[in-house]
Amino acid sequence: MKKLLFLILSTTLIFSSCAKWDDNPAADSEYEVVFKGVAASLNNLKATCDNPDAQYAFVKVKHTASSTILDFYPEVFYLGGTAYTQSIKLKPGSWEILEFVLMGDNFTPGNTSDDIVIQATPQQGAPYADFISNPLPFTTQVTEFQKNEIPIEVLCFEETEYEEFGFKWFRIDQVSVREQVFFGDLCVKHPADYAGSLYANQTNGVQIDMPAIFKIDVYNNGTFVESFSNASWLGQGQPLKVKYVDNNGEVNHFRFELFILVQDGVNFTYKKFHTWEFDDDARISAGQDNVVDFVLGNCMVTDADLILAPYISLPATATYQAIAWLPNSTLGAYVDAKITNVGDVSTKYELYNGTWPSWCADKNTTIGSGPYNMDVYSSLYPNLIPVFARHAQVWPMVNWLMNNLHYYPTASIMDIQDAIWILLNNYTGGSSLAHTIASQASQYGAGYVPLPGGWAAIIFVPQGTPPTQAQPNIQTMFIRVDP
Question: DSSP 3-state assignment of 99?
Fold first, then answer.
């Protein structure tokens, strides 16, 4: 008879809330779930296990009502020989615990390719299920503002015995738990605008350059897996570790979407700034320190793995009306534009109600006197603009021109407008000076990003325009603001 070594932990799920107590808590509030390991015995015999301590747990749960499946990788620590995990957060309701596995890092922290299973809970119907009282999966209830204690037992794991646990999917040569590490900086033009945000709670308070508070949403083959956030430690003092399962023997296409907490007028929201995509065991470029570091904005950082253009706090929509055209425009641009339905400067957007100098980005389409309800886009993130106005390689050149008009003291407003059309629309008309201006903007403006105190184009397209629309309905217009 095969000699088996088992360790049973009577594990308790303790639910508690960090949120403010409320007479009417929201149904979608999340409550902390902590796993606590308590040593037990098997058939009145003390169990032993020679496996090392675990560093983290792999937990798979399913929300009964929505069928949403979530994976968690809480870290494990030991107090007085008892294993605990960091908390996970679940909404109140019925949850099914599908998998529970304690993992070891094999003495190579940060490298998950060689991680090992320490203990695991058998599945119903598996040979080892008879050795515990409650094999997986089983259902538990998360109740608002109430502690719940639910035992979950694990057995000492031997690699050759994975089938006895019912984990055919968890063969060591079939699944790898991988990890990538992230840290970011947020650079802002007006630090005072971030008073009242989570950034104000950082050790040094709001500054021009702050550790970024961000989250990363993980997708595998197009299916959402889990969201990882550093908000609980305010983004400072440690990086964000993202753990995810790579099923060997099949193609896993991963998509990591980066959301950063930024000012949105008088509010603060997570906005998506970047997407990384890779397959299987490929890794995001992380330099020699193996930390994917990024910077949002102009901190004069040149060695980050990802440098994102400055963020401009803009309303999603505005009303645009051309009230005067050259030669009747008076604000030093091709068009005098009236912007409304945004609010005044107290909204803390860079765009506000008023009359603005404006330019035309489309030679081949017309625009009437309006007014027009418009979607508002930053030229610093051209990939978010609808296709017909995207011009991803050209908007930096236009921004260079808008910041260097002083090089062309003899140029007329029409020369500048023609140069813009030459850049954006391959316009063949205009003066020789206009073509010289466009040529120099192409030469010097490739990849140009305005510095603080400079100008960036803000683009207006009809409200509700689909991102994939290839042809404009009306002329695309833009103004410039200080990013």
Answer: strand
The pLDDT value recorded for residue 20 is 33
- Compute the distance between CA of residue 78 and CA of residue 75 in angstroms, rounded to an integer: 10
- 374, 360 Cβ separation under 8 angstroms: no
Instruction: Tell me which long-range contacts 209-212 makes (C-beta under 8 A, separation of at least 24).
Output: 209/185, 209/299, 210/185, 210/186, 210/235, 211/183, 211/184, 211/185, 211/186, 211/235, 211/236, 212/183, 212/184, 212/185, 212/186, 212/260, 212/261, 212/294, 212/296
Beta-bridge mates of residue 103: 56, 117
Number of H helices, E strands in the chain: 3, 29
Q: Which tokens belong to 187?
A: 């650079």
**CA 243 to CA 218: how far, in whole Å?**
9
pLDDT in tens, 359-396: 999 999 999 988 999 999 999 999 999 999 999 899 99
| Cβ contacts of 245 within 8 Å, gap of 6 or more | 58, 71, 175, 176, 177, 178, 220, 225
Q: Which of 73, 286, 56 shows the shortest CA–CA distance to 184?
A: 286
For residue 322, give the nearest of 309, 336, 308 by alpha carbon: 336
**Residue 161: its pLDDT value, please?**
67
Are 437 and 416 in contact by the 8 Å Cβ rule? The answer is yes
- Cβ(6)–Cβ(47) below 8 Å: yes
List of the chain residues with pLDDT < 50: 1-25, 38-47, 171-173
Query: CA–CA separation, 86 vs 167, rounded Å?
Result: 24
In the structure encoding, which two tokens stand for residue 92, read together?
């109140």
Q: What is the pTM of this model?
A: 0.65
DSSP, residue by residue, 171-208: -TTTEEEEEEEEEEEEE-S-GGGGTTSGGGGSTT-S-S
- Tally Cβ neighbours within 10 Å of residue 447: 8
Closest by Cα among 193, 221, 226, 224 to 207: 193
> Measured between alpha carbons, how far is 51 from 264 in angstroms, rounded to an integer?
50
Question: Which pLDDT tens digit goes with each residue over 90-135?
Answer: 888 899 999 888 888 888 887 877 888 888 888 898 888 887 888 8
Gyration radius of the chain's alpha carbons: 28
Give DSSP secondary structure letters for 431-459. -HHHHHHHHHHHHH-TT--PPTTS-EEEE
Question: β-strands 291-296, 175-187: how paired?
Answer: parallel
C-beta atoms surrounding 373 within 10 Å: 15
